[in-house]
Structure formats: structure tokens, C-alpha cells
Write a structure and sequence with these properties.
The complex is a heterotrimer. By secondary structure, chain A is an all-alpha fold. Chain A has one domain. Helix content of chain A is about 80%, strand content about 0%. Chain A has a two-stranded antiparallel sheet with strand order 1-2. In chain A, a hairpin with a 4-residue loop joins β1 and β2. The longest helix of chain A has about 30 residues. Chain A is globular and about 70 Å long. Chain B is mainly α. The longest helix of chain B is centred in the last third of the chain and has 31 residues. Chain C folds into 3 domains: about 140 residues; about 425 residues, no CATH class; about 80 residues. Chain C is about 75% helix and about 5% strand. In chain C, α14 packs antiparallel against α15. Chain C is mostly helical. The chains are: A mainly alpha, B mainly alpha, C mainly alpha.
């Protein structure tokens, strides 16, 4: 371990150290919520700064014996994780206090999970990827069950935990088989030695198992069934965080190992592409079609997040450079619009799951015009209507598919986007053109919540207007 | 010392892995399901050690240490979650925990 | 310096728009709103002058500076940025837009005083300036198109600014209808422009003006080029027709007078409507490569110039007269483009901006002083009530009538000269006729408004002079209308006296390569000048005879030729033709077939079918989500078996 290694991993180190500091603060200082909140934001900003520093000074370098890589897409991943973290911290206190889940451990868990995600985003080897994934997941299991007196929260945590651990087993088995067939866990070695492996069958079964394990984490069909339940049962701020940063982390790990494999030209690649394409199709269709039948907004967004995993998997199936940048861009776009949407849901939500059904949103434009407008904006973006970020995200992914001669996949993507119009814009219609059923209680959103919302809106609009800026960072 | 061919280890661990999977599929008790998952993880450990020994590469054994750490952390969190659930619902059977559905 | 100043020139009006648009109501101060709006453009003007001076200091070939503010879209080979081109052509437009724009902003502070939508008005005006600057400064067609649509939007918003007022027209009841008409007619032109862009992109793979010109002038495409080039040029011209109100898409401009008068002056006379001229000038090389396109441009333009001028003769609404005059003058500009006299067209854009803005603002001052009265039949003798307005309006009228040495004389004469030289006597005669009509109807409006008997109701109307914030811009524009012509003195005054020509030379050089201009002797030139001067004077004298010396002559003439009078009064029945031929037709087909049968039965039927099926699928799939972990694991394992099985066996 050299000084360069430490500098290269500085962002991860800062966030982890702050996670520990927050844990100690929580233990030693009384009424430490505000302090923990501040420390989290400072730590995340520090992480962002360190990541930007590494991006500018050592782009494309590896560190820790080639286990982590710096710059390019990993910088954007860091930005996604830290950005999601900052917005979640801004939203959390108001919401968690209201629903009775305000424990200061939340901040430790959040920071620790971000450290895990960053490790995944930076990893160039399946070993740190696995460790990062588990650090993230274990924190998520607890965060999903944060409202420990509520059955739905318990249930979400249990389901997530059991299925998550089960999927980890497959991911790990995949890693072991690939390790055994190419003799190394490094991604670069996979690409280099895949052609000369003695056990091609083991290699492909291993890759398949890794696809399954990571497919679970991104909530792709048919491994998606945990997602609606967990996203529904978990506290809304946590759901927003898991479904954006968590998904982004899983995809960062996915791209990390799939990209060199795709580039290796090893026989059997076409089969992997077919599998990824079918997973994409299944996720898009099942996610969107099931979302149609939902009456609970939170659950609808949860199902639609399965569909978004499907759109993102188009980029994996395309397996070309356009696909990787497309995924990265989409993850950034998705971060803002999805966290924003969940933020609105969270602001409106009342104790014991009140104000969550579609009927509660009737006539929202009259009662809370600001929130309704913001929510509509996110819905438009999630649908993929220009000029919002969501449009360019889909555009890049579908474009990647067409470049990879997967035009049919792009067409399925477009068709399922059309299906999603129904429930996304349906919600807008309900907010603007339906009479409210009753009075809606609820006060004003706090300043910090508003800041988080403002950040999401600016993000959704800005990167929709200048998509090229994101692509340029990813390409560096 | 008699060295067994690597296929033996791989087959054994695959069998244990499948037993674990079937256990997860068939058992109702959350704790037992979790123990089956532990079985799966340990079968992977066996695979890793076997490969490590076969190739003379230490990375696999280091991985095993990491996996054991992770499994320990998962066990702690998992049992806590089951405990919290039991406090609220007085059950550990997964088919009785289905408030969240459709 | 150029790259430092340009962002400010562009972004200041945008900032003004944002500030006035969002906080206008909260500011609650007309003075502040107006000041923000006017200074956003005024500072832009000062910076533009600085840019102009810097370009002057460079050698003619170096006077083209590209500024890339941000990347916009990159997709495969296709790349478009927020990148701007500062060259002699765009600088001319830049100066006119910010200069005249500033004056009109100042004027509006007086004109819109007391209007409840004061800050909204300035927000729209600033947005318009921003969009217009994008249009003329863009270095590619797509960014121009962005500005193009933006100004269209602002035009819509501003025509319908007083959306609750009535406005009479064919098929029009409210100002909002007039705004809609402008918007819809412009869409037709925009479609043409889009198709033109598609053709160009498919042929050359770029929408960048510089690259297009380079490829086109490289000789790879010979003069007289392919049909596709002609199609592209004509499609762009359709767009230009929409925005610049040429027949048959010119019907929206007279109704655009429903907006506040400063809007008519800025958008519907001085700047936006010249966007078509800009588009053709920018793509001069493309047009010169297609003689067919040039001929079409000339014919459409000449027809427009004459038809609109004849309609102007009989209108009674002072703003309608000016509106038809604008259409006619735009026709003149396109005539110049059609015969390849690009400099002459730009020259006329500049002088026209001065005197037409002056005339519109003057008419606004009259309308303001007469308590929103626009009918000239109810005016008369106003010169003693509003002397400033009268004097400036008169200067404007003399300028547009083409009397030496005011600006209109030089620019119009240059166009007529080129028409004679590069096309022939027929075109010249048409132009001369239009010029005669112009002089006649302009002085008709002067006499009806300011001279003769006072025909207004003294009990209700008390004409008064407008405040200084309105008269000062009038005087500045009057001075510009007088001296503006010296930018382009004709060749008989010496070599290189046509300043604008030398200034624009580098821009149009590639186009001139394919479309060399004839040069006539100085004698011909002098004769043409004298003749066109005489025509202008004749028009004025006729008007004087009809309206001052023998009042009532007009009615007699109208009674003598009722058919012609009716034709002109109904604007050659253009609106009616549209109403019956297009609007009614589309309405009927939409109602009876497209809506009742196609939409309701076929489309809705299909959609409802698909939607119901999808909804049912959703309810079905939902049942898979049983809530029991074991079942989730089952599906999970099934997926694994399929994937692993496929990998091993497939």
C-alpha cells in the first residue's frame, strides 16, 4: 500500500471514516441528530471533493494492486452515491421523525452503505466488488427495517435479507467459478484469460451466476420480486435511496465485470447477450405492466423501478461503449427524478401509511400546487419526455441497442415506455384534473426537504439540457 | 499424501450448494432458511479453497476469509431482523409474513 | 473580447426575462421592471458596438469569430453546440436588434405605463430579444431553428398580450385568435424549414453554416445543381415565407397588429420578420446554386411587394396600413435576394428597421394620444396637438417613400437597380409600381392622420402629445432614418463608398462566385435613380391631390371602380380563401370523418382494446407477487435453472 493508493481511494476512505466518526458521535454525544446530519453532509461533500481530485489528477489509474480504478465512470458513480446521500440526509430527519423511525444510527448506516457502493463503483476486481456489495446490502437490510415497531418495515427487512443473502450466495458461487476457470478475480484477467481457459463451461456458468446475483441486486426480472415489497415496506426516504443509489451501485458492479467480458471476444458471448436482453425485456414489461395495476403510489414507483432496471439492462445487452456511457448517464438522470419523486411521496406521507394511495393524490394541484408541479415534472422525466433528463437517458440506451444490432430490443423499450405513460401521466392527470376526495392534512415541507427537491429538479432539468457534459465526464 | 482430483471437491460443494438451495425453497422457518443460505456460502468457500489449492494462488483463500466475515455480519443482522419481527408478530414462519403483496 | 462579451449579450436578456417573469409581480415597480428590461438590452447594445469596433480593426477575412458556449447534443456523427458565429452579417443584425430593441424598450416604458401586465410585457420582450439573438448569432441551422421557434413563441405571447380584448378579422374575434393564427401559419413555414434541414443534413451530414458553405462552394456540387438542392433551398424559403410574411403565408402579419404597438414595431416590423431575409442570406450559397429557387424567390417576392402595397392603399386602420407596408417592403427585400443582391437586401433590412420602427412607434404615439383609436377616418388635424409625433412620422414617411437623401431612397433604389440590371425591366416595373403605391399610401396616412379636418369627437377625445420616454426614441429613429442611407451610397458617388457592401463582402463572396452580378454604366444608374425619385414624388403628390387639395376624390374613385375597391378592401380575398379552402375544409373533415369515425371508432377502439388487455395483464401479473418469500425463491430458482441450462446446453 503506497501513498498513491491512499490518494486514489481517498473518497472511499473519507466516507468510511466519517461513518465511524458518526457512529462514535451517536454513542458519545446526547441528542446528536443535528450533529450527525451535519457530519454526514460534510463527509459526503468531502468524498465528492476527493473523487473530483482523483478524477482530475489520476484519471484511469488503478490502485491497491489493480483492485480499484479511479476516474471516468467511477467519478460519476461517486457523484451519484454522494449526491443521493446528501439528498437523503436532507430529507431524512423530517420524514423519519414523523413516521417514528428517527434513530441516529441511520446516518452511520447511510454513510457505511455509501462507502460500500463507492467501493463497488471503483472496483476492478470481483473481490472488492463483493465486499462493497455486502457492506451496502447489510446496511440496507437494517435501513429497510428502521421503523422497528412497524410490521411492514420488519417484513421488508426480512424479505430483503433472506432473498439478498440467497442471491449473494449465487453471486459468490459465480465469482468462485470464474476465479477457478481463469485463475484470478481481476476483471482485466477475466478478459485476458477467458479465451484460454480449461473450463469454458465452468466459466460461463460462473458468469451466469454473477449475472443472476447482480441481476437480483438491480431488481431485474425474474429476480425482482423482493423490490416491490421492500420498497413498499421500507421508510420512504430509504426507498428513494435504495432504488437510486443502490441500483446505481449494483449497475456499477455489473458494468465493471461485464464490460471486459464483452470485450474479450470469448465464444459464448452471444448467449450472455441473449440472456441479458431477455432479462431486460422481462423487467421492462413485467415492471411496467404490473405498475399499471397498482393503487399505491409508493408501490407503483417500486414496480416502475423494476422497469427502469430493464431499460438499464438494454445497455448491458448492447455491450458496447455507447451502452456503458448510456447506463452511466441514465443512472445520473434516474437518481434525480426517482429520489425527487420519492421525496414528494415522503413529504405527503402520514403516519401508518396515510396519503399513499392514488386517490389521496386527487386534486393535489389545488391543495399543494408546488408539490404537484414538482411531482409532475418528475413523472414527465420518468416517462422519458424531452427535454427532461429521462428522455436523453432512454435515447442513449436505445441508441446503444441499435448500434449493437438489437433494434428489436429498442422497440420493446419504446413500447414499454408507452405503457409507462399510462401510470406516470395518469398520476399527473389525477393530481390536476380530479376532484379531491377529502381534506388532506399535512404541513409545509421543511427547508432541507425543499433544498433536496430543488436539487432534484435542477438536476433533472440541467442534465436534460446539457446531456453532453455527463457523457464527457464518463469518457475521461 | 493422497491428493484427490479437483472434480471431487467441486462436485461436493455443488451438491452442498444445491442442498442449501432446496432447503431455502422448502423450509418455512426464517432461521432455518438462513442456515441453508449459510450452507450455500460455505459450499462456495469449499470451492474457493479447492481452486486456490489447485492453482497455488492465495487469492481464493483470502476471499474465503472475507466471505466468512460477511457471513458473520449477515448472521448478526439477520437474527436481529428475525427478532424484531418476532416481537411484532410472534412468528418466524415466512409464509405467515405477507402483509406486503400484489 | 468577442468571446468575453458575447455571453453577456446573450444572457442579459435571458436574465431580464427570468427576473421580470418570476419576480415581476413582487417587484411591483414599473420603473424597476422597465429599467431591468431596457438595460438588459441596452448593455447588450453597447457590448455589440464594442464587438463591432473590434471586428472593424481586423482584416476583412478575419472578421469571423466562432464562440462555443456549451455542447448541446452529440449523437454519433451528429453534433450541435450552443455555438455562435460573430461575422459581418450577424453583427449587422446584432446591432439592429439590440439598438432598435433598446429604443423600443425605452418607448414601451412610456407606452405600457399603467398596464397591469407591465412586467410580463418586459419579460416577453426580453425573451424575444434573447431568442432573436440566438437566431441570428447561431452558427448552425438547428440553433437558428431554436431561436426561430422561440421568437415565434414570443410573437404569439405578445400578439395575444391583451388576450381579453376584442379584435376583428376574418374568423377572428379576440386578440387571442390573431395570436393563434400567427402561430399556426408560422408552423407551416417551420415545417418547410425542418424538411429543408433534414435534406441538408442527409446530404452533407452537417447543419453548420460554415461547413455547408464550404462544401457547397467547393465545386463538388456544380452550379445549377441537383433537384435536391433546389428542394432544400425551397423548403428553407417556405420557412422564410412563414416568418417574413410572404404570399401565401403572409396572412398572419396584418392580424398580428392586435398586439401592443411597440410589439408591432419591434417584432412585426423591425426584427423578427426579417428573420427570413437572414435565413436566405446565411444560406446564400445554397440559393445561388439553384437558379430555380432564385426565380421562385423573385416571383413570390415581387407578387407580395405589389399585392401588399395595393392593399395598403385602402386600409383605414393606421396600423394595418403599416402592416401591409411591412409585408410589401419585405417583398422588396426578397426581390433583392432573388436577384442575388444580398447586400441590398440586408441594407434594406437595416434602413427599414429604422423607418418602420419609427412609423410604428409614431402610430403608437398617435393611438396613445387618441385613447386607443386606430381608425384614421376618425382622426385628422393632429399635427397641432402632437407636433413631435407629426414631425418624426413625416420623416419616416418621406424615408419609406424613397425621397433623396433619406435612407429609404438609397436602399430601395439599390434594389430597383439590381432588379433592372439582373432580371429585367418587367421586375423593375413591378417594383416601381409597388414603390409608387408605397409613397401614395404612406402620405395618405400622413394626411388623414395629421392634416385636414379634425374628424374626431371633441367631447370624448382629447389628443395630447406623448411623454418624453416615447418621443425621444422617435427622434433618435428619425435621425437614423435620415442618415441611415449613407451606409450604402451607390457607385456613382465613387469607388468603395458602399460601406455595407465592403463590410459584408467576405460573407457573400462564396455566393457571388456562382452568381456574378452585372454592372451597368453610371448613366443607367443615374437615370434609374432619377426615375425612382420621380416615382416617389409622384406618389406623394397624388396623395396630396386626393386627400388635401380635393378631399372626397377617394370616395369618387372608389365608387367608379367598385370591383377593384372591394378586391383591395378585402385584401384580395386572401383570408376568405384560406377560411373556405383550408380552415373550413380541415374543420369539416376533422369533425365528420377524422374525429367521429377515425378517432372515436378506429383509434379509440384499438387503444381501448390494447389498454384493457394490458390492464388485465397487469392484474394477472400482480397475482404472482404473493407476498410469500418461498414463492419468490421459486421464481428465482426457475430463472436460474433456465439461465444456467441455456448457458450449458443452449
Amino acid at each position: 500500500m503506497t501513498q498513491t493508493d491512499l490518494l486514489a481511494g481517498l473518497a472511499i476512505e473519507i466516507v468510511s471514516i466519517f461513518a465511524l466518526i458518526i457512529m462514535l458521535t451517536d454513542a458519545l454525544v446526547e441528542r446528536s441528530t443535528r450533529l450527525c446530519e451535519t457530519l454526514s453532509i460534510v463527509g459526503l461533500l468531502g468524498g465528492l471533493a476527493a473523487s473530483a481530485y482523483a478524477h482530475l489528477t489520476m484519471p484511469g489509474q488503478t490502485a491497491f494492486n489493480g483492485m480499484i480504478v479511479v476516474g471516468g465512470m467511477s467519478t460519476l458513480y461517486d457523484a451519484i452515491f454522494c449526491g443521493a446521500g446528501i439528498m437523503t440526509v436532507l430529507l431524512a430527519r423530517e420524514y423519519l421523525t414523523r413516521v417514528g423511525g428517527m434513530f441516529d444510527e441511520f446516518y452511520t448506516l447511510l454513510m457505511m452503505s455509501i462507502a460500500g457502493m463507492m467501493l463497488m463503483g471503483h472496483s476492478a476486481d470481483s473481490m472488492p466488488m463483493f465486499v462493497g456489495l455486502e457492506v451496502m446490502s447489510i446496511c440496507f437490510y437494517v435501513m429497510a427495517g428502521l421503523m422497528r415497531n412497524k410490521l411492514s418495515s420488519n417484513e421488508a427487512a426480512l424479505k430483503y435479507f433472506l432473498l439478498g443473502a440467497f442471491a449473494s450466495g449465487f453471486l459468490l458461487y459465480g465469482i468462485a467459478l470464474v476465479y477457478g476457470s481463469v485463475g484470478s478475480t481481476a476483471y482485466s484477467a477475466i478478459a485476458a484469460k477467458a479465451l484460454s481457459t480449461q473450463f469454458p463451461t465452468l466459466f460461463w456458468v460462473g458468469i451466469g451466476m454473477m449475472i443472476i446475483g447482480l441481476g437480483f441486486k438491480v431488481a431485474a426480472f425474474p429476480f425482482h420480486q423482493w423490490a416491490p415489497d421492500v420498497y413498499h415496506g421500507a421508510p420512504t426516504v430509504v426507498t428513494g435511496f435504495m432504488s437510486t443509489a443502490g441500483k446505481a451501485a449494483a449497475f456499477s458492479g455489473f458494468v465493471g465485470f461485464i464490460a471486459p467480458t464483452m470485450a474479450s471476444g470469448v465464444p459464448g458471448l452471444e448467449k450472455a447477450k441473449v440472456i441479458l436482453a431477455l432479462l431486460a425485456v422481462g423487467s421492462m414489461l413485467v415492471g411496467n405492466i404490473t405498475a399499471l395495476a397498482q393503487t399505491n403510489v409508493k408501490r407503483m414507483l417500486a414496480y416502475s423501478s423494476v422497469a427502469h432496471a430493464g431499460y438499464l439492462m438494454i445497455g448491458l445487452a448492447a455491450g458496447n461503449a455507447a451502452g456503458w456511457t448510456g447506463i452511466t448517464y441514465y443512472l445520473v438522470a434516474y437518481l434525480f427524478m426517482q429520489i425527487g419523486a420519492f421525496a414528494v411521496v415522503g413529504i405527503l406521507e402520514r403516519e401508518n401509511g396515510g396519503n399513499l394511495t392514488v386517490d389521496d393524490y386527487r386534486g393535489l394541484a389545488r391543495r399543494r400546487p408546488g408539490l404537484a408541479l414538482v411531482m409532475s415534472l418528475f413523472m414527465f422525466s420518468l416517462t422519458g419526455i424531452p427535454p427532461f433528463a429521462g428522455f436523453f437517458g432512454k435515447y442513449y440506451l436505445f441508441n446503444a441497442a441499435i448500434q449493437a444490432d438489437l433494434t428489436w430490443l429498442a422497440i420493446v423499450g419504446v413500447v414499454s415506455s408507452v405503457i409507462s405513460v399510462w401510470f406516470y401521466l395518469g398520476l399527473v392527470v389525477i393530481m390536476y384534473f380530479r376532484e379531491p376526495l377529502g381534506e388532506m392534512e399535512g404541513g409545509e415541507a421543511s427547508i432541507s426537504s425543499r433544498t433536496a427537491l430543488a436539487l432534484s429538479i435542477i438536476g433533472t432539468l440541467l442534465i436534460g439540457l446539457i446531456p453532453q457534459a455527463i457523457i464527457n465526464i464518463a469518457a475521461r | 499424501m493422497l491428493t484427490l482430483p479437483i472434480e471431487y471437491y467441486l462436485t461436493l460443494s455443488a451438491v452442498i450448494f444445491i442442498i442449501g438451495t432446496i432447503g431455502v425453497l422448502t423450509r418455512r422457518n426464517a432461521i432455518i432458511i438462513f442456515m441453508c443460505i449459510e450452507l450455500m456460502l460455505n459450499s462456495v468457500n469449499l470451492t474457493l479453497v479447492a481452486f486456490s489449492q489447485y492453482m497455488g494462488d492465495m487469492a481464493g483463500q483470502i476471499m474465503v476469509l472475507l466471505v466468512m466475515t460477511v457471513a458473520a455480519a449477515e448472521a448478526a443482522v439477520g437474527l436481529a431482523i428475525v427478532l424484531a419481527l418476532f416481537r411484532n408478530k410472534q412468528t418466524v414462519y415466512v409464509d405467515e409474513v405477507n402483509v406486503l403483496k400484489w | 473580447m468577442v468571446s468575453t462579451f458575447l455571453p453577456f449579450i446573450l444572457l442579459l436578456p435571458l436574465a431580464g426575462f427570468v427576473i421580470n417573469g418570476i419576480f415581476g409581480k413582487k417587484l411591483n415597480s414599473e420603473r424597476l421592471s422597465g429599467l431591468i428590461g431596457a438595460s438588459a438590452v441596452g448593455i447588450g447594445f453597447i457590448l455589440s458596438v464594442a464587438i463591432f469596433i473590434e471586428l472593424l480593426g481586423l482584416s476583412p477575412d478575419a472578421r469571423s469569430v466562432g464562440v462555443n458556449l456549451a455542447d448541446w447534443i452529440t449523437a454519433g456523427q451528429f453534433s450541435v453546440g450552443f455555438s455562435y458565429l460573430v461575422d459581418p452579417l450577424s453583427v449587422v443584425f446584432l446591432l439592429v436588434i439590440t439598438g432598435v430593441g433598446t429604443l423600443i424598450h425605452i418607448y414601451s416604458m412610456g407606452y405600457m405605463h399603467g398596464d397591469p401586465g407591465f412586467s410580463r410585457f418586459f419579460a416577453y420582450l426580453n425573451l424575444f430579444i434573447f431568442m432573436m439573438l440566438n437566431l441570428v448569432l447561431a452558427d448552425n441551422l438547428l440553433l437558428t431553428f431554436l431561436g426561430w421557434e422561440g421568437v415565434g413563441l414570443c410573437s404569439f405571447l405578445l400578439i395575444g398580450f391583451w388576450y381579453d380584448r376584442k379584435f376583428a378579422g376574418v374568423g377572428i374575434l379576440w386578440t387571442g385568435d390573431a395570436a393563434k393564427k400567427a402561430f399556426v401559419v408560422n408552423r407551416i413555414g417551420d415545417l418547410g424549414m425542418l424538411i429543408g434541414m433534414f435534406i441538408l443534413f442527409s446530404q452533407f451530414g452537417t447543419l453548420n453554416y460554415g461547413q455547408l458553405t464550404q462544401v457547397l462552394s467547393s465545386g463538388a456540387f456544380f452550379p445549377g445543381g441537383s433537384d435536391l438542392l433546389t428542394a432544400a433551398a425551397l423548403c428553407l424559403f417556405v420557412g422564410a415565407c412563414g416568418k417574413s410574411a410572404q404570399i401565401p403565408l403572409g396572412v398572419w402579419l396584418p392580424d398580428a397588429m392586435a398586439g401592443p404597438t411597440p410589439v408591432s414595431a419591434l417584432i412585426h416590423a423591425a426584427t423578427m420578420v426579417t428573420a427570413g431575409i437572414f435565413l436566405v442570406s446565411r444560406n446564400a450559397t445554397l440559393f445561388t446554386l439553384s437558379p430555380t429557387a432564385m426565380t421562385v424567390v423573385t416571383c413570390v417576392a415581387a407578387t407580395t411587394a405589389l399585392v401588399a402595397a395595393t392593399v395598403g392603399i385602402v386600409q383605414n386602420d393606421i396600423k394595418k396600413v403599416l402592416a401591409y407596408s411591412t409585408v410589401s417592403q419585405l417583398g422588396f427585400m426578397f426581390v433583392a435576394l432573388g436577384v442575388g443582391a444580398f447586400t441590398a437586401a440586408v441594407f434594406h433590412v437595416v434602413t427599414h428597421a429604422f423607418f418602420k420602427a419609427l412609423l410604428f412607434l409614431g402610430s403608437g404615439s398617435v393611438i396613445h394620444g387618441m385613447h386607443e383609436e386606430q381608425d384614421m377616418q376618425k382622426m385628422g388635424g393632429l399635427k397641432k396637438y402632437m407636433p413631435q409625433t407629426y414631425k418624426t412620422y413625416l420623416i419616416g414617411a418621406i424615408a419609406i417613400a424613397g425621397i433623396f437623401p433619406l435612407s429609404g431612397f438609397f436602399s430601395k433604389d439599390e434594389i430597383l437597380y439590381h432588379a433592372f440590371n439582373d432580371s429585367g425591366p418587367v421586375l423593375w416595373v413591378v417594383g416601381a409600381l409597388a414603390a409608387f403605391c408605397t409613397a401614395f399610401y404612406m402620405f395618405r396616412s400622413v394626411y388623414l392622420t395629421f392634416d385636414g379636418k379634425e374628424r374626431f369627437d371633441h367631447h370624448h377625445v382629447h389628443p395630447h402629445e406623448s411623454p418624453a420616454s416615447m418621443t425621444i426614441p422617435l427622434w433618435i429613429l428619425a435621425v437614423l432614418s435620415v442618415v441611415g442611407g449613407f451606409l450604402g451610397l451607390p457607385a456613382i458617388f465613387g469607388e468603395h463608398v458602399h460601406l455595407l457592401h465592403s463590410w459584408l463582402e467576405p460573407v457573400f463572396a462564396p455566393a457571388y462566385k456562382f452568381y456574378s452580378q452585372h454592372h451597368a454604366s453610371h448613366t443607367t444608374e443615374l437615370v434609374l435613380m432619377v426615375v425612382s425619385l420621380c416615382i416617389g414624388i409622384a406618389g406623394i403628390l397624388t396623395a396630396r391631390r386626393v386627400y388635401i387639395q380635393k378631399p372626397g376624390t377617394a370616395d369618387k374613385v372608389a365608387a367608379r371602380f367598385p370591383a377593384i375597391h372591394k378586391l383591395l378592401w378585402h385584401k384580395w380575398y386572401m383570408d376568405e380563401v384560406y377560411e373556405v379552402g383550408v380552415v373550413k375544409f380541415i374543420w369539416m373533415t376533422s369533425q365528420s370523418f377524422l374525429y367521429r369515425i377515425f378517432d372515436k371508432k378506429i383509434i379509440d377502439g384499438m387503444l381501448h382494446g390494447i389498454a384493457n388487455a394490458t390492464g388485465a395483464a397487469g392484474r394477472g401479473l400482480r397475482q404472482l407477487q404473493t407476498g410469500v418469500v418461498t414463492n419468490y425463491v421459486t421464481l428465482f430458482v426457475l430463472g436460474i435453472l433456465l439461465i444456467v441450462g441455456y448457458l450449458i446446453l443452449g
